[in-house]
Amino acid sequence: MTAEPFQLREESYLSIYLWNEKDSKLKVGFTTKHGGQSIEEFSSLNLGLHVQDQHESVMKNRNFLSRNISFPLEKWIFAEQTHSNNIKKVSKPHSGKGIGSYKDGIMDCDGLYTNDKGIMLSLCFADCVPLYFFHPKSNFIGLAHAGWKGSVQDIAGEMVRKWTIDEGLPYSEILVAIGPSIGACCYKVDDRVITSVNKVLLEKYPLPYENITSGQYNLDLKQLNKNLLMQAGIKVENILVSQQCTSCETDLYFSHRRDDGKTGRMLSFIGIDEEA
User: Fold this and answer.
1) How many Å apart are CA 88 and CA 123, to the nearest integer?
2) Using one digit for the tens of pLDDT, what is the confidence trace for 224-260?
3) Nearest 5°: CA angle at 178, between 176 and 181?
């Protein structure tokens, strides 16, 4: 089995060590639920402002994370996520969007990208698939949030097309990492979802689901997004895939499905420090 690409740096977050080796100024990772101030079902490092946690606790948690990775919170950019395939290019003037209010983030958006250094992109998760994009030669970085709705709208392919068609980057040089999310082991869906999945997939790729009973399937969202990335032109050797399931890893992650919707949020994040 391929080595797990997301490794704990400390209790509060994991990092993509293979990408860190390519660029020492790259700050990239996925948070755990440990090390924060929140209590009860949000214990302890809830980083989502939209889940009815105490606002003060979330802000303390966000400040803690920013200090921990040495990237000032005023340089972070968040989005108002809507399970869409909308992707926005951002730049330094967007710094601070969504820091203290979910609704003040980049509106109606589930993907962010930039080639500006000195800003941190971030999105919230609690089972959906975090997608990370990196082009080392040009400093392009990106994030996408892919639940089943975003996945079947091919947000993964949309990001690839933004980078290759709009920005002129070569398919062969784009790196993608698929982060921890709910696994097929814990993600049961119905015919409505699978019908949508079948509409976006080519038959040459591995089937990302298994029929378990009539009208019920185990869906592997990470495999679905890997298929869509390959379908969009990304080389399979340039795609890293986490083996971690946010629902199974009870001690490490919040999970919307496991926790019946009353839970916190992890953050994906990616940014490049400015040159000294």
Assistant:
1) 13
2) 999 999 999 999 999 999 999 999 999 999 999 999 9
3) 165
Distance (Å, whole) CA 23 – CA 12? 22
Cα–Cα dist 220/237, whole Å:
19
CA–CA separation, 160 and 57 (whole Å): 36
DSSP line for 109-169? -SEEEE--SS-EEEEEESSSEEEEEEETTTTEEEEEEE-HHHHHTTHHHHHHHIIIIIS--
* 239-241/175-178 β-pairing: parallel
Residue 202 confidence class, pLDDT cut points 50, 70, 90: confident
Confidence of residue 203 (pLDDT cuts 50, 70, 90): confident
Relative to beta strand 13-16, strand 111-114 is unpaired
The pTM assigned to this predicted structure is 0.98
Q: Which two tokens stand for residue 60?
A: 């303390």
Average pLDDT, the chain: 97
Task: Tell me the C-alpha distance between 263 and 126, whole Å.
Answer: 8
Strands 87-89 and 111-114: parallel
Q: What is the dihedral of CA 248, 261, 153, 246, to 10 degrees?
A: -20
**Architecture of the 6-181+238-272 domain:** 4-Layer Sandwich (3.60)
CA gyration radius for the chain?
17
CA separation (Å) from 276 to 59, 69, 125, 167, 273? 28, 17, 32, 26, 8
Task: Give the pLDDT band (50/70/90) at residue 276.
Answer: very low
Residue for token digits 């809507």?
82
